[in-house]
Each structure stands twice: as structure tokens, then as C-alpha cells.
């Protein structure tokens, strides 16, 4: 959290520091060229995000990005509200449908511009306090760009990652990504939100078996909604939804259950 001292209103913002780029001990001209390509690609993608975040009300504004002493920094809007991680779980099906609907409309706008989120998970979806709207934040551009570079240009891996991940299988393997990758992460996010206390057991079972068997943890889930989510998280991207609009159409068939709160 930071305060912009150059802004008349001293507006609050979020500064995010990315993991540093590490080089092998032997730094040659080829390596320097790769660094330059990385920086140019990063800048280009960041500029695209700055532009679309200004145009779309449900994407947290990216004010700028900059490099200092080998570190890359994002400066984005602070959104007053709660991330879905902070919500009381399990989340009721009616709210799941509403979150899905709003998020898919945002993704539709992004994908039509050729922009992928690639980092959808509960902590990166904010329920804005002032108008009860979904706001997407923290795009996964840096990880995606770095994954396409050879091994002598790397991002610090940091701590060991737990087996469970919201990233699609093709992302985890460094394969080709597309809108289908975002649908996978979104579908898995909705599933885990409905699990409540069963989520920890689900993660343990997933780590042991490596299979996305989730319906047994939410036996009361509406079968229409369950089928939609199963298609969204299909291991094979070819069997997932083609575009966000396709998922929105079938989502209309899910009966809205009365709220229990």
C-alpha cells in the first residue's frame, strides 16, 4: 500500500515488486539481447494493460510500471473491497453464478483485445464495496513472458510451490495458452469457493492422486452448474469453452436458488 504524493488527492495505490531476473555467471552479448527483448515485451504488455484498465471499470487501474536497479514494479489502483479469499466460505451457488457472469463479461472484453489474465484465483478477484462489482487485478504477464525465454534468463523461483495450483495444465507445462486457460482458472476458483472447509482435504487428495475429482466435496451442487464447471476445467483445452460468450449462454440455464443469508 502506498500514497501517491504527486497526486493532488494523495490517492492510495498498490505497488507490487516482481521477482528479480537472475543471470548465469557468464553474461555474454546473447544474454544481454535476451534481457532487452524481455524488457521490451514487458513494457509493451504493460502499456496494453494501462490502456485497457482505463477503459474498463472492472479492471483495477494500472497507473504505471517501471524498472529500478534490476527490479520491475507495478503501480495500480487500490480497490476498496474484499478479495474472494476474504469471503466467508462456502459461497452460495447463486453468488457463484453472479461472480461467474460478471467475470466472464470482463474476460470477454479482454480476450477480444487479445489480452489474457493468466492469474485468476480468489485473491485476484475483488468484490468492490461501493457497487458490488467484480474487479480483476494482478495479471500474470510477467510469468508468462519469462516462460518463453531460454534457461539463462530466469525469474527467481522463490519458495517451493505447493502441488495445487489455479494455473491451467498448459501453463504449468509452459505450453501454448489462450482464453481457455483463463476459463480453467476461473472454473477452479468457483469450485473451491463452494467447498468451504472441505477445500483443505480436496488439496491433499489432489496432491496424492493428481485428479480433479471435486463433486464428492459438494454433493449438493446443481448438476447444470457442475457440468459447466467440469467443462471449464477439462484437462484438454480443446474440450473447454471456446469463448466467454459460450459459457455465459449456458450459465443462463442454471436455476438461481434463494439466498440462505
TrEMBL record:
E.C. numbers: 2.7.11.1
The keyword Kinase appears for this protein: yes
Residues in Protein kinase domain copies: 1-260
Keyword rRNA processing: no
Alphabetical list of PROSITE patterns matching this protein: PROTEIN_KINASE_DOM
UniProt cross-references to Gene3D superfamilies, sorted A to Z: Transferase(Phosphotransferase) domain 1
Enzyme class: transferase
Name of the protein: non-specific serine/threonine protein kinase
Entry GO MF terms: ATP binding; protein serine/threonine kinase activity
Keywords: ATP-binding, Kinase, Nucleotide-binding, Serine/threonine-protein kinase, Transferase
PANTHER family: SERINE/THREONINE PROTEIN KINASE, SERINE_THREONINE KINASE LIKE DOMAIN CONTAINING 1
Reactions the enzyme catalyzes: L-seryl-[protein] + ATP = O-phospho-L-seryl-[protein] + ADP + H(+); L-threonyl-[protein] + ATP = O-phospho-L-threonyl-[protein] + ADP + H(+)
